[in-house]
Amino acid sequence: MMASSPMHLIDLHDISWKFGESGKTARLPAKVPGCVHTDLLANGKISDPFYGTNELELQWIGHRDWEYSATFSVPGETLAEDHVELVAEGLDTLATIYLNDRRIGSSENMFIARRIDIRRHLKKTGNQLRIVFKSAEHYVKSARPNHNPRDINDPVGRCTVLRKEQCQFGWDWGPRFVTAGIWRALRIESWSVNRLDFVRIDQRHSANQDSVRLTVSPRFATSQPARCTAILSLDGHEACRSESLVDTDNKTLSLIVDAPRLWWPAGQGLQPLYDLELIAIDSETGAEIGRRTQRIGLRTIELDRHADQWGESFQFVVNGRPVFAKGANWIPSHTFVAGLERSHYERDLRAAAEAHMNMIRVWGGGIYEHESFYDLCDELGLMVWQDFMFACTLYPHDDAFLDSVREEATQQVERLHHRASLALWCGNNELPQINKEPLRDPSTRAGYEKLFHALLPEVVTAHDGATPYWPSSEWRGFFDSTHTDGEKSGDTHFWEVWHRRAPVSEYERWQFRFCSEFGMQSYSSLATQATFCPPDDDNIFGPVMENHQKNRAGNQIISDYISRRYRFPKDQAGLIYLSQVNQAYCMTVANEHFRRISPRCMGAIYWQLNDCWPVASWSSIEFTGAWKALHHAARRFFAPSLVSAHILQDEQTTISNYRKSGDGRVDLYTVHDGVDSRPAVLRWSLHHLDGATIETGERKLTLRPGESTRQKRLNFGRQLAAHGTDRIFLRTALEINGETVSGDTVLFAPPRFIPLQKAKTKITARLISPGEFCVTFKSPVFLHRFKFEIEGQPTAWMSDNFFDLYPGNAKSVTIRTTASTTRLQLLDRISHRSLVDSY
Ligand code: BMA
Predict the structure, then answer these.
(1) Is 87 within 8 Å of 187 (Cβ atoms)?
(2) Are residues 599 and 786 in contact, defined by beta-carbon separation less than 8 angstroms?
(3) pLDDT tens track for 170-217
């Protein structure tokens, strides 16, 4: 969070903006910040870009030039100042700026803020500001005349020369909408004598962290001496302050914070956030130059890479404590990123924290996010792995390009360096991994290295100085990129499962140090589908649905994985349900494995948390906000104290084989991320599908911080032979203080072989508080992946879903409704299904 007050500030958002095609006279009202697509939509000129196959009809927008204009007045005192500047925080992208018909500047990098001196051109009234945006699509075409749309790394023909959000050109989860517009804040700043430009904050923690020295370095527009006061406060109470004259000799202020309250990632402690306010006064006139408040967390975050028995560690160490990173990859939260606010981020970031995540990776094909994204990460304890915005394809390395990137990186690093949540700067997404062959060429490699091994790390060191830099995700050196190398050092993107269709058990073959991408697709729910799909055109392989499945092989791969584990679904609802249950299963196998093999592996960041439009994708949260089965599963597999059962399972097995296979061995592990040791009880019970309990067992144990332990090896070979692998299942539970904190079901055969039974589920509901209910489900038979929904309220919050119901055991869930609902209405609107209902 940042607040600053230059002498005079005129916000240019609420003046009446108009937009239209360049060279034509028609003009329509526009919104700033905004973009041409959302403005056309708001004016009723286009239909919903997400609906049906509208995307395909709307490509013309990106092929035209657009302009935005507004007329405004300024108060007399603005004109009386020595300096008057137009500040544009972000222009998307090929922009030329005119004030009163004079060209005052231009911009070709969406990620750079511009400050333009306008004093000479400004009048009191009738100022006309006009920003012309040239078509980025034309630029792409002229820059890449020989583009081959079959290029597997870049089928959509992005323009890597242009510093513009890369996924706007289409991605394997996103539409192609090449936008234009004023996408971030626009204002006039006027001042005389001096202006507070930037405040850098550095922390140095004493060895035992009982004190922190803060170095505060303000930067001003002129070298005029300034009397500065830095005040650190927590919850409105001043912790310490420092005053000093800042001039050419002395550029910093120091504060010593005794007994600092440390910021921790979620699950490791609290997130106290201090306000650091800097007030600058001109030393001659005594007039205030500016003040700025930045919110910081007192903590150290290191990327610890020390030699160990497996090679080299890859772990985040926070305040001296190694923390297993649990999280997901983040893509832009909306296809149209202009002016996104806290409300756009809050839903999904809160859901991440609710699923016990402590890290979000901001993937390099999107944007450096808006401030409120980082505000929320600071508050929720979500560490941010921040990619620079480069993805998949090689980029130019000529001087002009590098200069632009240097400015972009400097601005972004300065903007975000003080963030409590900022854990890592990462050069790019997958460039060396995807471009192995081209990078064998020495000059191509030298160009790559200029950008990712020299320029970016230099900027990070110079303008941040504390946050670690990592060249790429994944990265283990140019040609050390087999999975075996990933078991020794660095981070790994593992796509054998999904892209290469390897069996799900393949995850368990590898002992990666840190897995920063792996995923499985699923379809969005019927309710989300209804937001974009005409009811008469909803066949999953038909044109509308296919246009909302951007991974070319996506539908085939989903069907493939479903067929390995589940029965052929009887309808589309069944297919969607199975795709989600399968996705949750695959991600449970992977994430539990990565947690079990800690501390060799110290991070599991699955692909991907969110969607930017309604689509079939790897996300765990749908565009509408509905949680897929995976997000509920994430809450379980990322539980701070986890019981994880491991069996050797071959989902590719045939009916004739599986009965013979399966030696009945089950290893029960516990994994504990908590800060303190806890006494706990591990329980297991073996059940027959007919409801009988075959045997039970328990073990008292102590959970120790950061430990994964194999607690018990069970062998049910005899019972499997006696009852049939398809007739029995194991139930696990981990209890702390009598409360079950983790648990699941182990099936010994692929679910498609298991003769699940149907029965009527009894549902009762109790009002807890207005809009909040406790709903209880009870079934006389075992129901696998029981899913319930409330008609008309697809995004109602539920404490659990897609769970197992055990015969006679009541399961209670908390629900927060999204519309006023009585208890009886709620009961009337609940519908449900479980695996047995899908076929
Ligand atoms: C990755 C990402 C994305 C992509 C995803 C799914 O490797 O970096 O580029 O969307 O896989 O294919």
Answers:
(1) yes
(2) no
(3) 999 999 999 999 999 999 999 998 999 999 999 999 999 899 999 999
- For residue 825, what are its two tokens? 């209405």
3-state DSSP assignment of residue 332: coil
Query: How far is C-alpha 259 from the chain's CA centre?
Result: 33
How far apart, in whole angstroms, are the C-alpha atoms of residue 435 and residue 421?
A: 31
Strand partners, 211: 258
For ligand 1, whether the C-beta of 493 sits within 6 Å is yes
Q: Which of 329, 430, 481, 605 to mutate to test the pocket of ligand 1 (most atoms within 8 A of CB)?
A: 430
**Pocket of ligand 1 contains residue 525 by CB under 6 Å:** no
Q: Phi then psi for 193, rounded to 5 degrees?
A: 70, -65
Which residue blocks in 81-156 are alpha helix, DSSP H? 136-143
- How many C-beta atoms surround the C-beta of residue 514 within 10 A? 25
Q: Which of 474, 607, 608, 620 to mutate to test the pocket of ligand 1 (most atoms within 8 A of CB)?
A: 607
How many other C-beta atoms lie within 10 A of the C-beta of residue 831?
10
Does the pLDDT at position 584 exceed 60? yes
How many C-beta atoms surround the C-beta of residue 122 within 10 A?
A: 18
Closest C-alpha to ligand 1, atom 6 = 172
Using pLDDT thresholds of 50, 70 and 90, give the confidence band for residue 782.
Answer: very high
Task: Give the confidence band of 653 by pLDDT, cuts at 50, 70, 90.
Answer: low
Residue 794 has pLDDT above 70, yes or no: yes
The set of residues, in sequence order, having a beta carbon less than 8 Å from that of 290 and lying 6+ positions away, is 4, 5, 6, 7, 195, 196, 280
Cα distances from 722 to residues 491, 552, 690, 726, 728, in angstroms, run 45, 46, 14, 11, 10
Ligand 1 centre and the CA of 608: distance in Å? 9
SS3 assignment, position 586: helix
Rounded to the nearest angstrom, the distance between the alpha carbon of 495 and the centre of ligand 1 is 9
Which of 299, 272, 276, 323 is closest to 204 using CA atoms? 299
How far apart, in whole angstroms, are the C-alpha atoms of residue 246 and residue 253?
Answer: 8
Phi and psi at 368, nearest 5°, equal: -70, 120
Tens of pLDDT, residue by residue over 237-247, are 999 999 999 99
> Which residue has a Cα nearest atom 4 of ligand 1?
172
518 lines ligand 1 (CB under 6 A): no
Q: Which among 330, 392, 497, 500 is the best mutation to test ligand 1's pocket, defined by most ligand atoms within 8 Å of the CB? A: 392
How many C-beta atoms lie closer than 10 Å to residue 567's C-beta?
Answer: 19
Indicate the pLDDT class of residue 663, thresholds 50, 70 and 90. confident
Using DSSP bridges, classify how beta strands 641-646 and 665-672 pair: parallel, antiparallel or unpaired: antiparallel
